[in-house]
Amino acid sequence: MTDTPRAPSQIAGFIAKYDAAVAKLIRSTRTALRKRLPTATELVYDNYQFLVFGFSSTVRPSDCIVSLAASPKGVALSFYYGATLPDPRGILLGNGAQNRFIRLPSARTLSEPAVAALIRTAVTHAKTPLPKTGRGATIVKSVSATQRPRRKS
Predict the structure, then answer these.
(1) How far apart are CA 120 and CA 137, in angstroms?
(2) 43-76 pLDDT, tens per residue?
(3) pTM (2 decimals)?
(4) Spans of all domains in the chain
(5) Which residues neighbour 78 within 8 Å (Cβ) at sequence distance 6 or greater?
(6) What does the pLDDT look like over 96-113, one tens digit per residue?
(7) Distance between the two ends of the chain, CA-based, in angstroms?
(8) What CATH number should be reported for the domain whose range is 7-129?
């Protein structure tokens, strides 16, 4: 699987819709997570409410391990199967049947011991393991025709 040919320019356009501080946070957290999960396939969704970068072991959304969800308020690290992850520090937010998340004030949050441990645990609990070698593709999966404003009003 190769990158979507237009992905870099499309993604730059998606991020440019945000205020400068949020755009910078999106870029820095995405770069940090890509370095942490280099073999993951990055699935990009510019949805109605969020810009989402899913890091998956395959091209299937159901194999997503973690994702970054950006809104005008900032960026969150979402654990696709977070409800089943052990969370001894109690840092996961949300109470849905499946998903849990952590707000990311900066990319450095991804390196905090409790957050890094949750990412490692999510990777080891993945239904389909990440490839051992190679670089995962970046694929723009969908762009919503209508979207909520990406900048604070």
Answers:
(1) 21
(2) 999 999 999 999 999 999 999 999 999 999 999 9
(3) 0.93
(4) 7-129
(5) 52, 66, 67, 68, 69, 99, 100, 101
(6) 899 999 999 999 999 999
(7) 40
(8) 3.30.1460
Quote the tokens at residue 11.
Answer: 């993604």
Q: Token pair of 119, please?
A: 């990412």
- For residues 53 and 68, is the Cβ–Cβ distance under 8 A? yes
Who contacts 35 (Cβ-Cβ below 8 Å, separation ≥6)?
Answer: none
- Distance, in Å, from the CA atom of 8 to the CA atom of 143, rounded to the nearest integer, reads 14
What phi, psi does 11 have (nearest 5°)?
A: -65, -40
Residue 41 structure tokens: 């396939």
- Report the half-sphere exposure of 10 (CA within 13 A, side-chain side): 18
Tokens linked to 46: 């510019």
138-143, strands of its sheet edge to edge: 100-104, 74-79, 64-71, 51-56, 41-46, 138-143
Structure tokens that stand for 10 in this block: 């499309």
β-partners of residue 44 are: 53, 140
CA 1-14-152 angle, 5° bins: 150
